[in-house]
Fold:
Amino acid sequence: MKFRFDCVFYYVSDLPRAIHFYTDVLGFRLVSQDQVARFDVDGVLFELVPAPDPNQVKTGSGMCLEVEDMPQAVAHLESEGIHPATPEIKQGGILSWFQDPDGNFIFLWQYTGR
Structure:
């Protein structure tokens, strides 16, 4: 049996709100929408899927986005009303995170020393 990658997805409680967040705030390119919304994120299929029960969206997993300039990325998010965690210096880079409107974690990572 061979398993192949299909996509990464998040359950969301409000699909139009989530689409707005991922397109207008994060700049993801929406490639199709029917019952779910599909984005191409640097060649990876990312989907937003309406939660079976919008009052019980499950979180716990996370997506990590690489940024070239952490202060600029944080400033952009703050201009959109999002307040990421204070960036922390880690081995090999700088880490911050925030949550989408449904509480899904999105991490920001800036490599250092490249």
Observations:
- The helical segments are 15-25, 70-79.
- The beta strands are 8-12, 29-33, 37-41, 44-50, 62-66, 88-90, 93-99, 105-111.
